[in-house]
Amino acid sequence: MDRENVESRVREIIVKQLNVNAEQVKAESSFLDDLGADSLDLVELVMAFESEFSAEIAGEIPEADAEQLRTVKDVVDYILAKA
Amino acid sequence: MVDLSRNSLRRVVVTGLGAVTPLGPDFTSSWDGLVAGRTGVGPLTKIDASLFPCRVAAEVQDFDAGRFLDGKEVRRHDPFTHYAVAAAHMARDDAALHRYTDPQRVGVIIGSGIGGLRTIDVQSRILHSQGPRRVSPFMIPALIADMASGVAAIGLGARGPNFAALTACSSGAHSIGEAYHFLRLGKADAIFAGGTEGSVNAFSIAGFCAMRAVSTAFNDDPARASRPFDADRDGFVVGEGACVLVLETLDHALARGARIYCEVTGYAASCDAHHVTAPVLGGEVLAQTIGDALRESALEPGDVDYVNAHGTSTPYNDLCESNAYKLAFGEEAYRIPISSVKGATGHMLGAAGAFEAAVCARTIVTGIIPPTLNYERPDPACDLNYVPNVAIRREVRVAVSDNLGFGGHNAALVFQKFSPP
User: Do B250 and B382 have their domain in common?
Assistant: First the structure.
């Protein structure tokens, strides 16, 4: 799967869910520290990733995995590894 | 800081008004519409009306929550919170209360009849079609009825007493009454008090239709559907919106040079203890509640210049209230102008009592009594002066507002023209 494609879809979700500008969302941006997310936002973000990538990652992102997803890069790596 | 050594009661005044109603996105346009005899009742458009026997509603239109909350916040909250936050911010601007000496002495008490019914509707569909893992983490915070007060407090930076009176259609009145108590006892300097409801959604319309509580006879002529005290009234019209008043102790208002609309001088609350939804038709309990509020104000029925009725346009409510006025005011009941704004606003449920309190404040300031719309054919059982269809000019020094809520709740408030100490 194409990294660029995954990354642009992940960024799009983050921009929409966290109501931030696209320029703010860098590969190393932390959801909590840099993008103003709180713990409830993180739950909603993971749900949005699951929906968007349901074809690629086949189902749910387990709680233990979700806790490790702290930055844009974490998410992209995770989806590429599972796909 | 609370000074517990002082125990004398404080005077409480109204210094700010803010609202979002079916008549307009702010209090001034709502008031202007009311006085002009405009209606906010129209066809039910926010949901597929063809499914329901009632196809009229008083919907809030042209409202942009994004003016008061950022995009993420708008998405997180239910409409009842959007309306409340907007009304609270407009009330703050109207009162010019932008800086507090002690934020913990500034409270928020915004009641709601139901809370986030739309959120319950949307999320329960998701639960049953997609399973529990798809339910939003924001569902609970969005639907709990106290959240309007909680979210408004964040925007206002108000750390004082904060909760919501939850008494169905009298929530707004009880919230204002409870705020008055806190201020009167010296436990706060200022409180943003009012009510809110985001009630035009499929869940709520279905529920009220099932109760046979709403109007169904005027689907082809929505403007005539809400007709308080009229002989052809056949149920209320579901409305929505919010209204918030800034209440302050007189000392606090004078110290900051605030403009004062009127004084709150009486509040009483009671319960019919009779039936879940039907009022005591003789009006005995409501009458005593109104009497209690008048006595707290040291007033007689002869002092009352205006009564703002709950006047929902249901057969039972309007009869109960008319009977209660005769018991509470005696012969004076036939003299006092009585009007219900619900002919124009529909029934804003938890917001109703708050908007009606704001109307009393404006009536006292302007000497204009808003009319009861669609009063065309007198009901022999409701034979008082309901200010039919056209606003009247009258000096109002004392205004009484009462509200009733499912659960048997009653509330009465007394507002008086302000006279300096």
Answer: no
